[in-house]
Amino acid sequence: MATIELVQVGKTYPNGVVAVKGIDLAAADGELVVLLGPSGCGKSTLLRMVAGLETVTSGEIRIAGARINEREPAQRDIAMVFQNYALYPHMSVFDNMAYGLRNRRMARPEIEKRVRATAEMLGLAALLERKPRQLSGGQRQRVAMGRCIVREPKAFLFDEPLSNLDAKLRGQVRVEIKRLQRRLATTSLYVTHDQVEAMTLADRLVVMNQGAAEQIGTPDEVYSRPASLFVAGFIGAPAMNIVDGVIEKDGARVRLGAGGPVLALDRPLAAQGGRSVKVGMRPEHLALAPEGPLALAIELIENLGADAILYGKAPGTDISLVARADPAALHRAGHTLHFEISPRQIHLFDAESGRRLTER
Amino acid sequence: MVENRPWGNVFSHATLIVGIGIICLPLWIAFVASTHPVDRMFHAPAPLWPGTHLVENYLAVLRSGIGQSANAPVGTMLINSLIMALAIAVGKIAISIISAYAIVYFRFPFRMGFFWLIFVTLMLPVEVRILPTYEVIASLGMLNSYAGLTVPLIASATATFLFRQFFLTVPEELAEAARIDGAGPVRFFKDILLPLSRTNIAALFVIQFIYGWNQYLWPLIVSTDERYYTVVMGISRMVNVVDAAPTWNLVMATAVLGLIPPVIVVLLMQHLFVKGLVESEK
């Protein structure tokens, strides 16, 4: 079936720049895999290698089991949605969608049928004779998707399709994309730098940084068990608190900062006693507790309506903390609050490599 | 500048009227001169109002040319000019658009070298290269032919440069989307680049047509057979008659006739430019 396999796929440019370092990925048939990462991490380059718009320097890409490294984009049976839609400006919506099919010498009645059915599915039936400049951003994006859908390809490739839309529209189109992808059950690769898009759309996520895949997993795995500091800091908003710490000699607790609060761990790590670590705690996991070990002197409050984000420091140390609270509690800057955190919500990372400590 | 200053209006109108006057006066005088009989032309001052011989003068000039200097009828000259201008305009556009396409969308050794070579030929107008070009055309036996009139003028660095600049503004994603849609290089060119270049082509067509129409030096040298004379060079031959005074009324009639086709081309094409400038293609 239409699986996508990437085996040690890498890209090095002639000037020596390494854009992608040995990525291994196997997308199952019908799965939506999101490539997530900051600008310059190589996610777009990887997508373009799958599309055939960039050459592959090392490794192999297979679609439906067949190696496609050498094939032209048109021979790979893929379709791509671009960030800027890339619609043909002088052609009508109908012609934009029909262009690929005409190039494949499909019969006129068949083209008619497919284009009209797709237009119906996307709510574009009334717009078929319009030119792209007469459409809104959201409509153009739908035409771009329509152009892909009519081809009935083995895989969809999305290159940050929602980046050019305003925030409200982004939310709506995101849901539409998810529904469509489910309905059509086509394997998809989706590139984005927005972790909200990634978490909501992905069946599985590939978090990329500087050309390498830091973690591949379901949204839940990536959120609850981040494999590295980078992933921990990238997923989740507001970002996870990362504090330097040292595991106590008995391995059952960790001390934050120099002489800071001590937190209990859920599993004793006697072998790690004395080890320097980075401790990760998500703001949403800090629970208000009058006698809790984590004290926070509030410096700044962001009120989002449904949540209040509290920024401050642990008194007596220079540890910065961020916590989430109920806005109705009307906290003020200058107050000091106490929090506790469940031992299972504490993440430990090696202080040098940033990798998650594997015993946990 | 949305102020409403009455004296400002008067001043701008006055300037415009004077400007139009300066430009139109010679044309008016030429037209007037073409409507008078030949003897009226020898009395100073030149006539300012149209005379009575409009139809006769124009018919004479179109059918039989002007007397002794063995000139072709202006009708033939107009047709030669038309053929030359059209061939040059179409040829220049065709050749430059393809070169610009190659330079922008393909990678090959010495690509930029070729581009700069083409660019450097901007320093070589017809007048500078006229002797070697004549030598080559003569030895190829292309004197006194349409090919000889048009081929040496048919490559254009300006047009190549303009098309290159235009192609650089076409988003790369368009080419990528077309590639994914199965369009090879030729299809992409035909289906996508060419329609997008419409206004550029129209603008260049006008410029090159007028350039071709107004060619003087080259047709003068290349055609010694009166069947290949063009209007612009023909007029100067009429004026430079050796024995008699030039028949100004007929010369002016020829000049007016020689004006008309470029004016028609500009009028027809200007509607296309404005449309292209106004609609934003995104």
Features:
heterodimer, A: alpha+beta, OB fold (Dihydrolipoamide Acetyltransferase, E2P), five-stranded antiparallel sheet, 24% helix, B: MetI-like fold, 13 helices
Describe the structure.
The complex is a heterodimer of chains A (360) and B (282). Chain A has 360 residues and is an alpha+beta fold. Chain A has two domains: 4-233, Rossmann fold (3-Layer(aba) Sandwich), CATH 3.40.50; 238-350, OB fold (Dihydrolipoamide Acetyltransferase, E2P) (Beta Barrel), CATH 2.40.50.140. Chain A has eight helices and 20 strands. In chain A, the strands form four sheets. Chain A has a six-stranded mixed beta sheet, sandwiched between helices. In chain A, strand 7, helix 5 and strand 8 form a beta-alpha-beta unit. In chain A, helix 2 (93-103) packs across helix 3 (108-122). The radius of gyration of chain A is 24 Å and the shape is elongated. The mean pLDDT of chain A is 91. Chain B is mainly alpha-helical and 282 residues long. Chain B has a single domain, classed as MetI-like fold (Orthogonal Bundle), CATH 1.10.3720. Chain B has 13 helices and no strands. Chain B is globular. The model of chain B has no long low-confidence stretch (mean pLDDT 85).
Mean pLDDT of chain B: 85
Please estimate the helix content of chain B: 55-70%
Number of strands of chain A: 20
Strand fraction of chain B: under 5%
CATH class value of chain B: Mainly Alpha
The CATH topology of the largest domain in chain A, please? Rossmann fold
Order of helices and strands of chain A: EEEHEEEHHHEHEHEEHHEEEEEEEEEE
As a whole number of angstroms, the C-alpha radius of gyration of chain A is: 24 Å
Major sheet attributes of chain B:
none
Shape of chain A: elongated
